[in-house]
Amino acid sequence: MIVRAGIFYDGTLAQPRKNVDIAVDGGLVREVRAADEGGSPDYSAACVTPGLVNAHAHLEMSGEPDLMTFYATTTQNERVLHAVENACKALRAGVTTIRDLGSSCGVSPSVRDAVDAGRIPGPRMRAVASPIVMTGGHGWPIAREVDSPDDARRAVREQMKIGADAIKLMATGGVMTKGAVPGNAQLTFEELEAAIAEAHRHGLRCASHAIGTQGIKNALRAGIDSIEHGHMVDDEGIALFKERGAYLVPTLAAPTCIVAHIEGGGQPQYVVDKARYVNEAMLRNVKRAYDAGVKIAGGSDAGTPFNYHDAYASEVELMHTLLGMSAQEALVAATSTAAELIGLHRGVLAPGEVADMLLLKRDVGSDVRALRDVEKVFKGGACV
Q: For residue 28, what is the domain's CATH number?
C-alpha cells in the first residue's frame, strides 16, 4: 500500500517533508520516499501524521457530569459496554494507542485483550486494572485501598494477576471524589516507594495521580515514571522532574472541560469548586514546567466530565494555546513522546515502525485544529 502526503510529519521535530509517499507492507512502514520516485498511491491526503497516542484515559467513563453517581448507579456489565463503545470512538477519531489509567473490576485489561484478539475495534492499549489508593482516598469506589508499604506491594501483585500491564498510584486527593482535597498528599512516600519498586521489578511502568505539591514530590522521589496532572508543581518539583527524567501528563482538558460547563452542567458543587481551584493552579504552573524543560506527554483524562474520547484533538490544541507549544511540538507530545511513556512502540512514521497514520484535509502545522477533522485513520496499515 502507498499513501501519498502533500505534507508529512513523522512524529519528531524534524522539518516536515512535502510530496512524500509512505509505503506500507505487513502493517509496518517499509519506506518513506519522494512521491516522484514511482508507484501510484492507494490513498492520498493533504497532510499525514502518526496516529495519536492518549497516555491518560478512562474508557469505561463517557464524560458523565457526576462520576460518583455514575459508579453508584451502573453495573459492571454496563461499564464494559461503555468501554467497548469508547474504544471504538477513540480509534475512529485518530487515537491509535491509549493508556487506560484505572477502571473497575478489571474492565480495561479485558478490553485490551479483546482488541488485541481482533474481537472489537480499538486502539493499542496499556491497561491499569484498579488504581491503588489509601483507604478512603481519591477514586476509592473503583480502587484497591492500602494502608502500609507491604499492603501496597501486595496490591501491585493483585493488579498483575488481574492482567494489568501498568500500575497507577494515587499520591494526592482529586477533583471527582467527594471529600478528597486535591492539594493534600495521600499515599505515603513509603507506600509509593514499595509499590513502584515491586512494579518495576516485574517490568511494569507506574503512573501517579498527583495534583498537590507534596504528593508530586513524594511520587518523584519514590521513582515514579509519570506524574498525571501535576498542576501544583513548584520549583523543587520541576527540578526533581528533570533530575529523575519523569514525564508530566498535564491533562489540560480535564479541568478545562469542567469549568467550561459550570452553567447547567449538572455537576456537583464540590466538583465545580475544586476544578476552579485546580484550573487556576494548572494555568500558573504547568507552563512553567514546560518552559523549564520537563518532558510533556499528551494525555487528556478522557472520560471525565464533558471530556470525550473522540475529542483528544482538544488536548493537543490546549498544549498549543495554554503551554505555548508550536503546533508541531504539540503533535510530537501527543505522538512520539506519549508513545515513549507508554512503551508499546515509538509513535513515529519511519521504516520498520507500525503503520499507524492519520490522513488530514489540511496541514496540522499551519492549523492544529486540523486534527478535529480526520479524513482516514490507519492502525497497523489497515484503514479503520
A: 2.30.40.10
Q: In what order do the strands lie in the sheet with 247-249?
A: 144-146, 132-134, 166-170, 205-210, 226-229, 247-249, 295-296
Judge if 336 and 374 occupy the same domain: no
> Could you tell me if 9 and 79 lie in one domain?
no
Which three cell numbers, joined as nine digits, stand for 224? 515514579
Q: Are the C-beta atoms of 89 and 290 separated by less than 8 Å?
A: no
Phi first, then psi: what are they for 20, rounded to 5°? -120, 145
In contact, 31 and 353? CB cutoff 8 Å: no
Same domain, 280 and 292: yes
Q: Do 84 and 194 reside in the same domain of the chain? A: yes
353 and 260 in a common domain: no
Report the 10 Å Cβ neighbour count for 131.
Answer: 24
User: Using an 8 Å Cβ cutoff, are 111 and 125 in contact?
Assistant: yes
Residue with cell 493483585: 158
Structural domain span for residue 244: 52-342
**98 and 124 in contact (C-beta within 8 Å)?**
yes
Cell representation of residue 109: 485489561
Q: Are residues 244 and 206 in the same domain?
A: yes
Hey, how many other C-beta atoms are within 10 angstroms of the C-beta on 19?
12
pLDDT tens sequence across 294-314:
999 999 999 999 999 999 999
For 215-244, the pLDDT digits (tens) are 999 999 999 999 999 999 999 999 999 999
Report which secondary-structure segment, H or E, holds 44.
strand 43-50
* 159 lies in the same domain as 249: yes
